[in-house]
């Protein structure tokens, strides 16, 4: 068993200390750690070096061997995704891609071989759009993804994206996209019928044409095609195509008059009966995320989360999609209520001027990071790759800008679901994000983001300050990696919020936490058995990671722990330890 040297910087309860300060004079900086805890550093037993020639305390804990002996009978399994493991071995710690990648699964990638190719290219989360395909099809996709995880060693989370009350949805009835020709005449009707009819589009509800006039424009999916209303026939609309393009199944439409969006108020719940059926399906299939469409306030998010708490045996995270002007007006409360955000730029671009999209995207990303919620940038990242094998340079610049803003994840929609070059599109995201992360790392280490205080209780404030300090320590000491032992993933997310240079390896014994952390920037979740003994967990975790060849002699790692003893919550403590492998 390898000897592990350690410098321990521990935080312990001490109600006599009001604002202790970690004063590492030999390292040339001071960092406050909030809360009633002392932080100590033993400088007397110095040997070895860490980072850029900075001297640090290196000490073997006298109890390590005893604790390891107590753990010899425990089963420990390392569940690191094989793609992340391969990347680590090939590129080293600093070469690991930290921006997560989401792929929408559709007809173009529904085979087990196609899914495996996406997984090998770095897919972290598979998204299933419940607007399309049958319940049996979705069930089959989830089984295939779980099979890849179990048999091939991937760690791919599953997200279902539920439809929401889309009052402006139209469907031409064909199984795939239809090419709309310039000048062709189409009938938009609320009549219910099975299958498809030539040049006929079925609207989702009867009152879709209320308040619409002859001369108004109907824009499909934010500009994929455009029609002009030439006649009203009862509740139906006869329309002429003025901008030809692709008409996807179950597309969103918006109405425009004199260059402005026609705004109409409708009393409609956020969640429809179909949505609740899809939610029950997601619970039964054990999905990891549910993305909620057309969220305009925090209430439906809270309602769904409360429902999941009572109905689901596992923890399912709820993501709110920002795709309307009303959602932007209630942005902060929606972010606070949710477990994450998806910026649906396509639908959002229908409701606000196009030139505002970049600034709005950056603001949403900033607020999400401030409130410690992961954010996905979605819609039209590589739209041209639905039909072409290479992206435009503008698309690559768009992707790079999202990475520069430190978005947690990027998402492919039609590019992977119906496109001919889904695997290539994912490869472009992977390469562009990895390159941009390397370029922006130096800037990030020099400019620390002042963090908005989140914690209310003393325990939460202490955890927050420890993670802020740990991220700064990791950057200043140039450690190779950060290890965090976590039950529910909270401190892992707080570390991710700081966007440290080294990758964050989150060791957890909770499968739901492991899959949820797939969405966090820079976090690589590992499944490992944990006990109530913090020191034993740390030693065991490093030994198991070393046995896989993921760390080697001379590597320095910062270890943060939030494991609380189950039978002694009052004795719970967080810790920061710096260890070097010999």
From TrEMBL:
<protein>
    <recommendedName>
        <fullName>Pyruvate kinase</fullName>
        <ecNumber>2.7.1.40</ecNumber>
    </recommendedName>
</protein>
<dbReference type="InterPro" id="IPR015813">
    <property type="entry name" value="Pyrv/PenolPyrv_kinase-like_dom"/>
</dbReference>
<dbReference type="InterPro" id="IPR018209">
    <property type="entry name" value="Pyrv_Knase_AS"/>
</dbReference>
<dbReference type="GO" id="GO:0009570">
    <property type="term" value="C:chloroplast stroma"/>
</dbReference>
<keyword id="KW-0670">Pyruvate</keyword>
<dbReference type="InterPro" id="IPR011037">
    <property type="entry name" value="Pyrv_Knase-like_insert_dom_sf"/>
</dbReference>
<comment type="pathway">
    <text>Carbohydrate degradation; glycolysis; pyruvate from D-glyceraldehyde 3-phosphate: step 5/5.</text>
</comment>
<dbReference type="InterPro" id="IPR036918">
    <property type="entry name" value="Pyrv_Knase_C_sf"/>
</dbReference>
<feature type="domain" description="Pyruvate kinase barrel">
    <location>
        <begin position="96"/>
        <end position="425"/>
    </location>
</feature>
<dbReference type="GO" id="GO:0000287">
    <property type="term" value="F:magnesium ion binding"/>
</dbReference>
<keyword id="KW-0324">Glycolysis</keyword>
<keyword id="KW-0460">Magnesium</keyword>
<dbReference type="InterPro" id="IPR001697">
    <property type="entry name" value="Pyr_Knase"/>
</dbReference>
<dbReference type="Pfam" id="PF00224">
    <property type="entry name" value="PK"/>
</dbReference>
<dbReference type="InterPro" id="IPR015795">
    <property type="entry name" value="Pyrv_Knase_C"/>
</dbReference>
<dbReference type="GO" id="GO:0030955">
    <property type="term" value="F:potassium ion binding"/>
</dbReference>
<dbReference type="GO" id="GO:0016301">
    <property type="term" value="F:kinase activity"/>
</dbReference>
<dbReference type="InterPro" id="IPR015793">
    <property type="entry name" value="Pyrv_Knase_brl"/>
</dbReference>
<dbReference type="InterPro" id="IPR015806">
    <property type="entry name" value="Pyrv_Knase_insert_dom_sf"/>
</dbReference>
<dbReference type="InterPro" id="IPR040442">
    <property type="entry name" value="Pyrv_kinase-like_dom_sf"/>
</dbReference>
<keyword id="KW-0547">Nucleotide-binding</keyword>
<keyword id="KW-0808">Transferase</keyword>
<keyword id="KW-0479">Metal-binding</keyword>
<keyword id="KW-0067">ATP-binding</keyword>
<comment type="similarity">
    <text>Belongs to the pyruvate kinase family.</text>
</comment>
<keyword id="KW-0418">Kinase</keyword>
<dbReference type="Pfam" id="PF02887">
    <property type="entry name" value="PK_C"/>
</dbReference>
<dbReference type="GO" id="GO:0005524">
    <property type="term" value="F:ATP binding"/>
</dbReference>
<dbReference type="GO" id="GO:0004743">
    <property type="term" value="F:pyruvate kinase activity"/>
</dbReference>
<feature type="domain" description="Pyruvate kinase C-terminal">
    <location>
        <begin position="464"/>
        <end position="563"/>
    </location>
</feature>
